[in-house]
Amino acid sequence: MRHDGRQPDELRPIRIQRQFTKVAPGSVLISAGDTTLLVTASIDETLPPWKAADPAAQKGWLTAEYCMLPGSTSPRKRREREKVDGRSTEIQRLIGRSLRACVDFEALGPRTIMIDVDVLQADGGTRTLGITGGYIALCDAIATLGDKVSKDRPVLTTSIAAISVGISHGTPILDLDYIEDSQAEVDLNVVMTGSGEFIEIQGTAEGRSFTRAQLDQQLSLAEKGIRQLMELQQAALKG
Ligand code: UDP
């Protein structure tokens, strides 16, 4: 039993609210327990200059920004003004890479999608929840393109979700909160597609090592959690 009463293979309660704000074509408030994020997807009808200069400029692009708001954690996190810190840079690149894996950029055409993940409250698992919520925001944003994209060629080729897993006191556990994350012997972030393939696995052991068998156990746990998250994504998108 875990400190919050969950079973080792149990996700935190997930809440998803689409169209949370009005201006962005995709806007999702998503929570996993006490971790809460606002994820928006915006569409810019241009390409970044480096991309526009590319011979394949008819293809679109997707990029992401991530920010933990000052009051999202204690002690307060300094507002990132001019310089994004190393952790946020790493996380926003992960979110962008992950969500690019489900976009057919020829079908999207020469436009840029920006995913913004703002952490309202941090309690572990912000990067993975940003990807899971980002997929929903992305679906909503793409839907607003209407006739600007071909009906015969879907822009989104699969679904994407992500979860953290780890090893705590020798036991593999799913969806770590901050207390678990800070004490875990192993911390693994897993991103998968709807067809059950991996996009990214980030894994670190702290002060010990882990075996191939333990890696496999954690990946199985992650896959189980991701399947549940995908069902919740689909339910939210239908609602
Ligand atoms: N955290 C924090 N301040 C920071 C970085 C992390 O409070 O500057 C906390 C926060 O709760 C976060 C957790 O530590 O969710 C785990 O951070 P990690 O870098 O492992 O990323 P995450 O699990 O959020 O993707």
UniProtKB/TrEMBL annotation:
It is an enzyme of class 2 (transferase). Phosphorolytic 3'-5' exoribonuclease that plays an important role in tRNA 3'-end maturation. Removes nucleotide residues following the 3'-CCA terminus of tRNAs; can also add nucleotides to the ends of RNA molecules by using nucleoside diphosphates as substrates, but this may not be physiologically important. Probably plays a role in initiation of 16S rRNA degradation (leading to ribosome degradation) during starvation. Keywords: Nucleotidyltransferase, RNA-binding, rRNA processing, Transferase, tRNA processing, tRNA-binding. One of its GO terms (biological process) is rRNA 3'-end processing. Belongs to the RNase PH family. It holds the Pfam family RNase_PH. This is Ribonuclease PH.
